[in-house]
Amino acid sequence: MPANLSPEYKRAEQAYRLARQPREQLECLKEMLRAIPKHKGTEHLQADIKSRIRGLTQESASHGKSAHRGSSHALHPDGAAQLCLIGPPGAGKSSLHASLTGSHREVGPYPHPARLPIPGMLPFEDIAFQLVDLPPVSFEFMQPELTNLLRSTDGALLVVDLSAPDCTEQLALILQRLAVAKIILTERWPATAELAPADPFSVYLPTLLLANKIDLANPEDAAVLEDLLGVRFPVIATSATCGRGLAEIGPFLFRALGIVRVYTKAPGKPIDQNRPFTMRRGDTVLDVALRVHPDIARTFKFARIWGSGKFNGQHVGADHPVADTDVVELHA
């Protein structure tokens, strides 16, 4: 990172890292370009910012022209988190996606790759995760538009056909192609601030390896595969055919992402148990208030909490951390 970057630039860069939608990313990039010190040490970074602004501007124009055909790759995140399924042709991504989400896509025992991202919901207890089946990554091609989706998603499910003779080469290819696009798959869940790279356009994406078609392979092959590639992703052995490992994915995502379910109630009213707010480990009562409504957060006075408090109905302030299954009554 070039020296002497202004606080304004650093704030814009942090906002860019957190932005999920292309329009938000574009506004952050424009602010980064405006705020960056103009000297020789930042020329390379300025050129990178300008290139990304052009790319997002062209993508936005293309999506606008083709909106009536529904061809945009933009997907609105839904559920407790958004996870993308990545893999080579024939790895069984679509079959896993159909089994996990209950989608009714046509799948078969042959490579039949999806050409557009396909979303679906994986239920877990009283929440759900959005799983997005991406077009496959092959030796010949990877759709460049998908990198924007991967930059804003919460994690990756890396699917490999463990029974395929070339599975090691396929997985190495995916890691290489994504690295060129500055998307680094990491075993750390969630990807923490300590992993933030000096390059603001590199993204660390927490990854779960799904060693698929385990009914046709040796279960120990997954460890051998990781040893050969020098990676250490958490692994779940799966099979869409016999259902092995599928029930482990939801609990893993819940733990690894630090999901915290918070239920709310209005004063004098029963608890709203229909749909909890899905927060993250470390979030506070004020974060819950922001999710409920910005006006409530702005005029927040105190909250009563059932669950993680010292006693039921305890009065707490805005900075009180929430825990899973807490019930929060907001007063503003």
UniProtKB/TrEMBL annotation:
One of its GO terms (molecular function) is GTP binding. Residues 258-332 form the TGS domain. Pfam families: MMR_HSR1 (PF01926), TGS (PF02824). SUPFAM superfamilies: P-loop containing nucleoside triphosphate hydrolases, TGS-like. This is GTPase. The lineage of its organism: Bacteria, Pseudomonadati, Pseudomonadota, Betaproteobacteria, Burkholderiales.
